[in-house]
Structure formats: structure tokens, C-alpha cells
Design goal:
6 helices; 112 residues; globular
Length: 112
């Protein structure tokens, strides 16, 4: 999916990431499923499809929270912040990015 995204072939990028989500679900690999949903959200952003992007990133966040994976939760919040930034909803973007900062401080790490 990443190669297709890099060359701007978004339909194939989405198809690839969707296949990965299905495989992750079948294998009960929830962390992989969450990450692939985040990847799908990034492709939707590149396509200008804000609603589907947010939906994917919210699913990513739900799974990360359910797993108790703070690092992945921070990634999902960051992705949501970026989605709202691109949609020019700066207040909501800032709110999500503040969650990232809080989690980074909690994890006592700088890079998320």
C-alpha cells in the first residue's frame, strides 16, 4: 500500500491496505489492524476524502485504546489532528495534537 501511495495510485493503495485489514482481522492481529486502518486514513487524506479518513483514524484510536497501547493511541490522535488540520478545523486539530503531547509526556518520550 505504501508504494502505491508514494506513486499516487490511491485506489490500489486502498485496496492493499483493506486486504491487510482483512488479513489482520482473520489472524486476530488487532495492532496490525489498527495500523492498517491508520494507513487507510492517510490514503483517504491524500485523496481529499476527509470523512472516510476520520472514520479510519477513529477506528484506529478505538482499537489502540482497547489494547491499552499508548504509543499507538498517540499515533491515532496525531493522524486525527492532521486530518482536521487538512480540513481546516484548527481547533479540533489542536485538541487532538494536545492528546499526543499528553501521551508523549506520560510515556516520557519525544518521538511518537
Amino acid at each position: 500500500g505504501h508504494v502505491y501511495t508514494a506513486i499516487g495510485d490511491y485506489p490500489n493503495a486502498l485496496a492493499s491496505h483493506k486486504q491487510c485489514v482483512l488479513l489482520a482481522k482473520q489472524g486476530k492481529e488487532e495492532l496490525s489492524e489498527a495500523r492498517e486502518l491508520g494507513n487507510m486514513g492517510a490514503v483517504y487524506i491524500a485523496m481529499g476524502d476527509f470523512e472516510n479518513a476520520v472514520q479510519c483514524h477513529e477506528q484506529h484510536l478505538r482499537i489502540a485504546k482497547a489494547l491499552g497501547n499508548k504509543r499507538e493511541e498517540a499515533r491515532a490522535y496525531s493522524n486525527l489532528g492532521s486530518a482536521y488540520h487538512y480540513h481546516r478545523n484548527f481547533d479540533k486539530a489542536m485538541s487532538y495534537h494536545n492528546h499526543v503531547l499528553e501521551l508523549a509526556q506520560e510515556l516520557e518520550e519525544k518521538p511518537i
